Amino acid sequence: MLATLVSVVDDDGRLLFANNALEDAIGLSRRSLLGVPLTDWFTAPELLQNALQGSHGHEYAVIRYDAFLKRLNNEPLPVHVVVAKSDAPGEVVVEMLPLEQQTRQEREERLIDQAQANKELIRNLAHEIKNPLGGIRGAAQLLQMELESRELVEFAQVIIHEADRLQSLVDRLLAPHRRAQVVGDVNIHEVCERVRSLILAEFPKGLKVVRDYDISIPEFRGDREQLIQAVLNIAHNAAQALKERIAAGDAEIVFRTRVLRQVTFGRQRYRLALELHVIDNGPGVPEEIKDRIFYPLVSGRDGGSGLGLTLAQTFVQQHHGLIECDSVPGRTDFKLLIPLP
Prior knowledge:
Keywords: ATP-binding, Kinase, Nitrogen fixation, Nucleotide-binding, Phosphoprotein, Transferase, Two-component regulatory system. A hairpin with a 6-residue loop joins β4 and β5. α7 packs antiparallel against α9. This protein has 3 domains: about 100 residues, Beta-Lactamase; about 80 residues; about 160 residues, Histidine kinase-like ATPase, C-terminal domain (Heat Shock Protein 90, 2-Layer Sandwich), CATH 3.30.565. With about 350 residues, the chain is α+β, with helices and mostly antiparallel strands. It is built from 9 helices and 12 strands.
């Protein structure tokens, strides 16, 4: 049950033992890993080779350094490597501590607390706006009926129109909390395909939507329409941010699905989880709003409502999941994590 990746290697660096965490991280069973040089699983194998030589030569009791561990069908994992001589002759213990684990856990906890605060703020604010709004609209309608001046009637109509616009905004804010979940079997690739068709219908030229699916992902219980809306909100934001690249004809959005094993998020550990990436090659999230993109009414483009990501986070959290964002110029990656049965 250790989160630390632990292995034992012989004098030649071949694996004699790998714990469950190392199996899960690499994506291969212990049986497949045994006898294979551990150096094969590092992007810079010479660092581990030098550490093992130093250990065998009794130059160091413990050697520590940072490296990247290769993984099947995944990006390399940044780890802190600890190489120590074992009590057993001809054996060396190699521990690998994921560097991102603590940072990610802290970030996830902030996202969860932020989303909960957003939910309460939205609900309370929407109700406070909704109550007087009906009175304002009703009074403007009565006033419009009594007025004879055409100019004053137009002013009353402006009040009615703006009240209706505010009412529409309030309804969108309250929508996730009003509608009960309609739970059924969900195939995440059907969700992605639906979103893909909607995006390509709106942006038929200059945009390529790439599929990178793990077809082994099982169905799970959830609200299909909520998940379609969540993924659509993210993908639509990406497409909007890609307008310049769409005009140039080289815009790209990637839908990538993977299975994570023995993963912790949302303050819980899950045996299996879905990892859905929505990746675009746009300009990236503006630096000034990076830490606030899931806040309500925060938008990085003119005319945006700032509700799309807030609603997406709410819908995913109703599936006990989480959305994270990693963005640099040229690559923005929204990652949805949802527990699997």
